[in-house]
Write a structure and sequence with these properties.
Family: Belongs to the iron/ascorbate-dependent oxidoreductase family.
Protein name: Fe2OG dioxygenase domain-containing protein
Number of helices: 10
CATH architecture: Sandwich
Number of strands: 14
Keywords: Iron, Metal-binding, Oxidoreductase
Distance between the termini: 35 Å
CATH class: Mainly Beta
Largest sheet: 8 strands, mixed
Strand content: 15-25%
Order of helices and strands: EHHEHHEEEEHHHEEEEEEHEEHH
Helix content: 25-40%
Pfam family, one: 2OG-FeII_Oxy
GO molecular function: metal ion binding; oxidoreductase activity
Strand order of the largest sheet: 1-2-12-9-14-7-6-3
């Protein structure tokens, strides 16, 4: 990592969005992505094509939802979402490394409203209908904003992954063809970090989300203007990743580390609301492999600096990403069940002691 750099790089991804961009400009973007993935595992993207109006509507509707009394929010509790695991959870119900987080949130995924869809018919977890909050002029207004945003960010994520493919000297559509196919696993969260949480007695030294890495392929994060995201450097130092207007923070997850044989590494990060008077909002979108895709190493021709040894002892959760074998769905179920163990037992998604 460059010694003098103490902030995450900001990458202009417009060459990936514009079909008639020159090959040289696309290669330069890929080079910057490569350097960011090697040095940090994190980077900002700008000129991404997602309208500010859409971002602002998402933030405004979300603030309105979380300002409601708890009993109103619990009308769409995750426990009412069945095996789709969609809906609202209150502060303290989500765990990171076995410890309750200081945040509440909404869980969404790709909307599947067809009961004959094979995943729904076969009762595959994390597939199905979303539970949408009734906020706005009519019941569908927030729903429309959420789904429009999810489609836009999925498209952006696919383009960023085309840049990552270039950065690894792969075909531009490598991840689309081999991992996303026609149905990537897309998970979207809206998190609210109450300002009151860290002010409560006993919570002064707690985090909204403790140290962790993301378990998927690519995370694309919109955050409000409060800040509080911190990223761990290769020197075990923590740096701030503040909000920068009209940018998204991107980070690679454990699956991309596994696919690249440790050449690109997922980076630990954590969150705390820096404000004592305002709640913090964040909007992570996770673009991950197809549920049924087998997670295998990608071709790394000419690359010798890989490390896919069992690194459990050096990881934040003492779990190596390089020892897993199976489909992404198998992997994801075990991970998510650790986050909501009670719900996992209630839905009999995973057996006792399996996580």
């Amino acid at each position: 990592m460059p010694h003098q750099q103490t902030s995450l790089p900001i990458i202009d991804v417009s060459p990936l969005l514009i079909t008639d961009s020159s090959a040289s400009s696309q290669e330069e973007t890929a080079r910057q992505i490569h350097q960011a993935c090697r040095d940090w595992g994190f980077f900002y993207v700008k000129n991404h094509g997602i309208p500010m109006k859409l971002q602002e509507e998402l933030i405004d509707f979300s603030r309105e939802f979380f300002a409601q009394p708890l009993e109103n929010k619990m009308k769409i509790a995750m426990s009412k979402g069945g095996r789709a695991w969609r809906g609202y959870f209150p502060v303290g119900n989500e765990l990171t490394s076995g410890k309750p987080d200081g945040k509440e949130g909404l869980y969404f995924g790709t909307e599947i409203d067809d009961d004959n869809h094979s995943k729904v018919r076969n009762k595959i977890p994390l597939h199905g209908r979303n539970q949408f909050p009734s906020i706005g002029k009519n019941d569908d207004e927030f729903r429309h904003v959420i789904l429009t945003y999810m489609i836009a960010v999925e498209n952006l994520g696919r383009l960023i992954m085309s840049g990552i493919a270039r950065s690894l000297k792969l075909d531009v559509d490598f991840f689309d063809k081999n991992y996303f196919r026609n149905e990537p696993t897309c998970l979207f969260r809206i998190f609210n970090y109450p300002a009151s949480f860290c002010q409560q007695q006993g919570n002064e030294n707690l985090w909204g989300v403790g140290e962790h890495t993301d378990y998927g392929m690519l995370t694309i994060l919109l955050q409000d203007d409060i800040g509080g995201l911190q990223v761990k450097t290769s020197k075990n130092e923590w740096i701030q990743a503040p909000s920068i207007s009209n940018t998204f923070v991107c980070n690679i997850g454990d699956m991309l580390e596994r696919m690249s044989g440790g050449y690109y590494r997922s980076t630990p990060h954590r969150v705390r609301n820096l404000s004592t008077t305002r709640d913090r909002l964040s909007f992570p979108f996770f673009l991950d492999p197809n549920w049924d895709a087998e997670v295998l190493p990608v071709p790394m021709e000419g690359v010798t600096d890989t490390n896919d040894n069992d690194d459990a002892e050096h990881r934040w959760d003492k779990t190596s990403v390089h020892t897993f074998h199976g489909t992404y769905g198998d992997y994801l179920l075990k991970k998510v069940s650790r986050v909501f163990p009670d719900l996992a037992q209630e839905q009999t998604i995973i057996g006792p002691g399996s996580y």
